[in-house]
């Protein structure tokens, strides 16, 4: 029997919002992100206590959706190393496949010196095979970013992550709630995060209602990145101090694929 967490039970009570409404009112492609690692029961209490309306993304009756992201990096993992060294301006490139709807996209995330993040996305006609590098359509898109023009053709897959996401919308931003996060590297090693939720708030600038409510309960932002934290766990030879606490508390030891 599958047990339903308090959060999974609560999300079914929230009013629904469509994807089209989110794209119109809360796409938040330019934003400030804050991440938290939260017990499912505590998260349900946080959402229930908010003094602002909350809606949940619903598509064809579903309120949680399976995601697969393939991160691409240079041979020497320059994008990972930029994050590990806390370079203020850094970039990530990934393909994203929405397993429940069949949609696929190529995405570029650019972090500015001010701390804001700009996500650019191009939906693709089919799921791209990037085993040998970006497809021509994706390469044209990624190569159009000045920071990536010189390396786009050399990018190769470095990590695949899978998880189940629920998306909430509040009047001041958007919140993603990820569960069951697993990661697999190109050498067949894998890790799984513990039962806690990875909650990410996306607001235009200042802290939103969800951030303030979490802080009031003593829950502070955590250093967790599905790409970087997973790579740090799977590759002990890489610099990893930035994510050491998250690794100790929330990530199971790497396992070799059978």
Automatic annotation (TrEMBL):
InterPro entries: VTC_domain, VTC_sf. Pfam families: VTC. It comes from the Bacteria. Residues 31-234 form the VTC domain. GO terms for biological process: polyphosphate biosynthetic process. This is VTC domain-containing protein.
